Amino acid sequence: MDSVDIEKKNRKNFRSLLDVLSMPGTTSKVNKLFDSYVLSVGSVLLYSEVSYINKTQEDFSLIDAITNAQKKILKMLIIYFAMTQ
Known about the structure:
Strands 1-2 form a two-stranded parallel ribbon. Helix 3 links the parallel strand 1 and strand 2. Helices cover 39% and strands 5% of the residues. The longest helix has 17 residues, at 6-22. It is mainly α. It has helices at 6-22, 37-45, 61-67; strands spanning 51-52, 70-71. The mean pLDDT is 81.
């Protein structure tokens, strides 16, 4: 059985995300975590003090277990745009 160093992958993926977000137009590779890119990004960005909403059919139970983030249910979302002249 191969062991996975989640903290090491998180550090590398965090650096990749930070580089891309701080330098628009650049690209960087995110390494998979347990064969999932979504899990690798979720593992970097989510932690126990944040919540997230999953509107996909994908199972996020592994993300919940690794990050201890709080899953929320979106009942209604209304966005208002006010324009003044």
